[in-house]
Specification:
The protein is an alpha+beta fold. Helix content is about 30%, strand content about 25%. The protein has two domains: about 5-95, Beta Barrel (OB fold (Dihydrolipoamide Acetyltransferase, E2P)); about 125-415, BirA Bifunctional Protein, domain 2 (2-Layer Sandwich), CATH 3.30.930.10. A hairpin with a 7-residue loop joins strand 4 (about 60-70) and strand 5. The structure holds aspartyl-adenosine-5'-monophosphate.
């Protein structure tokens, strides 16, 4: 099946061709008619008789045959002089829930999420997902080049991995199972199973009870795990290069989308690394009282200070307090700290990562101390008995990365079909 996409129409100038799409906008003047045709790749103006424009209905899927004429007046560089237009189905025109062809959508975010098949037709709304596609592609390409293997691990699991109560339960043939909060245990196991370096692009589930602009109950986690590392600095180096590989790709493949979304891709700069102790001291010096870790507002403030000093919209918050990290976290040199970090981007956490404990007994004892039953984690602990190399990794929340990159107000705008406290449909 050969289809000519609007993006490729310039090559067809001077020829009569057939294109398909939806009627995006209609304009009828006394002596001429126009409509904009929209497909997955763009918009093109079609010039027609006024009666034809009169007879069309917005959002109708149509087949158009016409002559492609090069013109500087249109963004697409071409317009179509219509020979024939055929409607391919009926539109409940009077019921269209909101309009998508103006500068703004005349509906709030919740309404747009309710009728996703309609709101996603708007190019600017869909642009976010094209950006996410390119982020994921760059993530894959970059890691495969470094001999990482892509894995797909189960999301219905027997035991929670990240601790806490934020886990969904599932009835698994009468037995209680859980939805994976993270592929954490499996990605570590696969390092030990001989893959050495693995990554996964998959869903993660968090039964978090708060409704905020930055929390979802189901999100896409970009997970990385690698064996035979020195310490967590290797991971921070890796993530820094990975993010710039992603941004380079976006600059190459998504100019139209970035422009439409008015997004600025960060310049190549190394990310400042600041320990939790230093971070707290910096904030306290400004009269800000901190707890064991920083809250969202404090992470944001520190981001502003560091960006002003270094120009980098990113910073690594290192030597995270061990007590605030899951049981698998490798203890740091300084008592009470760990070899783990967060990455903050434009004031919001987008990554957690770190080195993991790789000695069986240490992990076993840690589980006992954390009141986890090591017996129910035997499948995980086994890998450590049979020779686990020093290893570590990190996870990037895809929607958080896109949200911060595109400076969206709400993480749901970066989610195709969000799941949150109040939303289980569509
Ligand atoms: P953590 O729990 O910090 O770490 O999650 C890693 C990253 O996932 C994203 N994220 C979320 N995004 C949207 N909504 C949520 N409710 C949500 N929760 C988390 C964030 C966060 O930084 N196993 C470790 C990772 C590791 O050490 O490899 C983990 O899951 O961007």
């Amino acid at each position: 099946m050969k289809k000519i996409f609007i993006e490729d129409l310039q090559k067809m100038a001077g020829r009569v061709t057939e294109i398909t799409g939806w009627v995006h906008k209609i304009q009828r003047l006394k002596t001429a008619g126009f409509f904009q045709l929209r497909d997955a790749t763009g918009l093109v103006q079609v010039v027609c008789e006024p009666e034809v424009a009169e007879s069309l209905r917005l959002e109708t899927p149509v087949r158009v045959i016409g002559e492609v004429i090069g013109t500087e007046r249109q963004d697409a560089g071409v317009e179509i002089h219509l020979h024939e237009v055929v409607a391919l189905s009926e539109v409940a025109y009077d019921l269209l829930p909101f309009s998508i062809n103006g500068r703004k959508v005349d509906a709030g975010l919740e309404k747009q999420l309710d009728v996703r098949t309609m709101s996603l037709r708007r190019p600017r709304t869909r642009d976010v997902f094209r950006i996410e596609q390119e982020i994921v592609t760059a993530f894959r390409d970059f890691l495969i080049e470094l001999r990482f293997s892509e894995i797909h691990t189960p999301k219905i699991i027997d035991a929670a991995t990240e601790g806490g109560s934020e886990v969904f339960t599932v009835d698994y043939f009468g037995k209680r199972a859980f939805l994976a909060q993270s592929p954490q245990f499996y990605k570590q196991m696969m390092v030990g199973a001989g893959f050495e370096r693995v990554f996964e692009v998959g869903h993660a589930y968090r039964a978090e009870l708060h409704a905020t602009q930055r929390h979802l109950n189901e999100y896409v986690s970009l997970d990385v795990e690698m064996g035979f590392l020195q310490d967590e600095k290797d991971l921070m180096d890796l993530e820094e290069s990975l993010l710039f590989a992603i941004f380079d790709r976006l600059e190459k493949t998504c100019q139209t989308q970035l422009k439409r979304l008015e997004a600025v891709v960060p310049k190549r700069l190394s990310f400042p690394r600041i320990t939790m102790t230093e971070a707290k001291a910096r904030l306290e010096a400004e009269g800000i009282r901190t707890g064991v870790t920083l809250n969202g507002a404090q992470e944001k403030r520190l981001g502003e200070i560091l960006e002003e000093e270094t120009g980098s919209p990113f910073y690594f918050l290192t030597e995270y307090p061990l007590a605030k990290r899951p049981v698998y976290t490798y203890p740091g040199e300084v008592d009470g700290t760990s070899r783990s970090f967060d990455l903050i981007f434009r004031g919001m956490e987008i990554t957690t990562g770190g080195q993991r404990i790789h000695e069986y007994q240490e992990l076993f004892d840690g589980m006992v101390a954390a009141k986890m039953d090591p017996e129910s984690f035997e499948f995980y602990l086994d890998g450590f008995r049979y020779g686990m190399p020093p290893h570590g990794g990190f996870a990037i929340g895809l929607e958080r990365l896109a949200m911060q990159l595109l400076q969206l107000d709400n993480i749901r705008e970066a989610t195709l079909l969000p799941r949150d406290l109040h939303r289980l449909t569509p």
